[in-house]
Amino acid sequence: MIGVTGSAGLFTVILAFCWVYIRKYQSRQESEVVSTITAICALAVALITSALLPVDIFLVSYMKYSNGTYKEWAANNETRGQIEDTVLYGYYTLFLIILFCVFLWIPFVYFYYEEKDDDNVNKCSQVKNSLKYTIGFVVVCSALLLIGAFVPLEAPPNQNATQWEKAQYFFKELGSSRGFVALSFSISSLTLVGMLAVITYTAYGMSVLPLNLIKGTRSIAYERLETTEDIDEVEQQIEKLRSKCEDGRPLSSRDRRKLQELESKLQVLRRRDRHLEIAEKNCCTKVGSVLRPLKILLGIFFILVALLFVVSLFISNLDKALHSTGINSGFIILGTNLTNPVNELLLALQPVFPLDYLLITVITMYFVFTSMAGIRNIGIWFFWIRLYKIRPRRTRPQALLFLCMILLLIVLHTSFMIYSLAPQYVMYGSQKYLSNMPSTRDVQGNSTGFSSRTCDAAAPEDQCTMTRSYLFLHKFWFFSTTYYFGNWAFIGVFFIGFVVSCCKGKKSVIEGEVEADDSDMSDDEYLH
Description:
Layout (H helix, E strand, L loop, with lengths): L1 H24 L7 H30 L14 H40 L6 H28 L12 H13 L2 H38 L4 H23 L10 H29 L1 H8 L1 H32 L17 H8 L6 H24 L1 E3 L2 E4 L8 H25 L1 H6 L3 E7 L11 E5 L13 H6 L3 H27 L16 H8 L1
Antiparallel strand pairs: 1-2, 3-4
Helix pairs in contact: 1-2, 2-3, 2-12, 2-13, 3-4, 3-6, 3-13, 4-6, 6-10, 6-12, 6-13, 6-16, 7-8, 10-16, 11-12, 12-13
């Protein structure tokens, strides 16, 4: 009953956060019910999926006592199997929902609103054209599932078997955990795309978020003074150009072009001045000034956390490079040979329940929120083409759908990132097992007991239970190999983003609110 109440409470909190987050960024002028519900649900699925990893680790750890023996209720293999299957079905459900969102629901809603921009298209044509484009995504999803179901099949053990015997073996293998393999392959393929998003957005977000908190924003009074001076200067230039045609002579094409540019610039500056005036009177701005010391402390804390994660990731990758079984096995490593700070911290917190689970939950949420910060600062790009900007109260429905899809992909890769930070802990949690090596000996040299050891990859299979997350992540060695090299790219992008963020000056208090390509209508919407 407590577990159900806790789950319902967590679900309510996640939905409330998603609603507030989406409503904060969506454009009031272009908001639609369907796109809003889709974005909220997709973001909620991303957060719920990220919350499943700490639950997975907790359940495998909760089966055992601290001395390495199973608890009475978990001593039966059948009971443990039921718990493991429950977690596995949870992953099945959430991963299938992710596939549905990424390949069907979000693309359909996205193309529906793209078609809506054309005033000559009716509702029937909108739906038909949206379905036509969405079919391409469905074909890709089907191809991934089929590849996952058929490619990993092993050859028949008896090469001299008849065609009928080979067919029987084929269908027997296809029915044996093929659904798990097909889903795992599809999710791993999406995780590769998520890895690119993590390298781009999360790595930059981990550096820009704390540095923005530390540096703060520019003075509103100084910005208003600067804007007023710019307005006066541009008005003088416009008057100077207009004075050339007072006698009735037309302006040259060069002067007309320059006049248009100056008028557009003046319009932007006046809008900027209006936004600064509102920000100056805003209560949130005044509260932010009072909380400035707290922001600096938070920024310092976040940058230390980011450096801790990057150092742990570097040590983990170095450990794999030196002690793993090689590239053809996905850089699988048996145990930890180099001291990993995050892994050691989680293991040290095990005796004080539930500090280790709180920390793994905080780490998971940290990756999600830094990813959001990265997307918000960079925007959504397709190579060198900027598709959408993410701005408070002015983000288009299509941009929010893109944002949620990117977050879904990022969450998929987050599990592997956390595994890289704390490999031993993510595989087995706080489990221990009884080693055959005696812990103490009497005077005659006879053993008097057995030592309990922390579970690792070298532990007996019947003594340690792997998390279901780990099984999903490491089903295919070539994906693990790609993730390994992706971690090195993540470290490189983090330090590049850190240097770039350090070189940048303070942000404006209205950063991103006023740009030349904004319409007057969207500006009025923001002001009201």
